[in-house]
């Protein structure tokens, strides 16, 4: 019988992810992973395969988590709350980027930028993840349209693509050094330009309108 593994797989994958995240795929050696995880290279190869297979496992788990976060914010609920769910998700992404003081960015974006051109597995997983996010956003936009919070004549596919680009773009410009308030303003502006009644625009941005004097 094969001997049971004497390590916590979740913990090992988490530490491997941190190493890849910190130094990138090309800048990470299996020796680095071994040091970070406390496992010998033989154990790593036996459990996860070579560096490429280990990265695919870590990258795939991260992509799954990205979609799960979006599902937690966007999936389900009454149509009357769809606009608020969209607002909450876009603002969450802005806040997550604003709090990334080390400017590590998202492993999805980092891995795709480095490997998608030459690695079909990374390219495919990245595309699947973006498609899943796009579907979630489109579904919520359609729900908001049914409730009358977004113009029913607007194309939900195009609006979803706009919001997805804004969310992913916030991560990119935040990593480049834009300050947190600018990131929040980007989120506000993206929500404010959705074709909806003025009163609902104030709700979407999450900021109180100025009082008239």
UniProtKB/TrEMBL annotation:
UniProt keyword annotations, A-Z: DNA-binding, Transcription, Transcription regulation
GO MF term list: DNA binding
Coiled coil: none
The keyword Transcription regulation belongs to this UniProt entry's keyword annotation: yes
Superkingdom classification of source: Bacteria
Gene3D superfamilies, A to Z: Homeodomain-like (1.10.10.60), Tetracycline Repressor, domain 2 (1.10.357.10)
Database matches in InterPro entries: Homeodomain-like_sf, HTH_TetR, Tet_transcr_reg_TetR-rel_C_sf, TetR_C
Protein name from the UniProt record: TetR/AcrR family transcriptional regulator
């Amino acid at each position: 019988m094969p001997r049971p593994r004497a390590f916590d797989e979740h913990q090992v994958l988490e530490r491997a992810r941190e190493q890849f995240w910190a130094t990138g795929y090309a800048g990470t050696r299996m020796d680095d992973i071994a040091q970070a995880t406390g496992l010998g290279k033989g154990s790593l190869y036996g459990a996860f395969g070579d560096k490429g297979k280990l990265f695919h496992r870590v990258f795939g788990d991260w992509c799954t988590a990205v979609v799960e976060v979006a599902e937690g914010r966007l999936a389900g609920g009454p149509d009357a709350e769809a606009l608020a769910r969209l607002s909450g998700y876009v603002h969450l992404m802005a806040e997550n980027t604003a709090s990334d003081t080390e400017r590590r960015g998202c492993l999805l974006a980092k891995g795709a930028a480095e490997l998608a051109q030459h690695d079909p597995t990374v390219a495919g997983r990245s595309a699947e993840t973006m498609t899943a996010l796009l579907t979630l956003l489109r579904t919520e936009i359609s729900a908001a349209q049914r409730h009358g919070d977004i113009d029913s004549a607007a194309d939900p596919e195009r609006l979803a693509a706009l919001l997805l680009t804004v969310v992913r773009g916030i991560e990119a410009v935040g990593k480049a050094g834009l300050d947190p308030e600018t990131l929040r303003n980007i989120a506000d502006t993206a929500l404010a330009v959705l074709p909806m009644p003025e009163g609902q625009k104030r709700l979407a941005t999450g900021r109180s309108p100025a009082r008239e004097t």
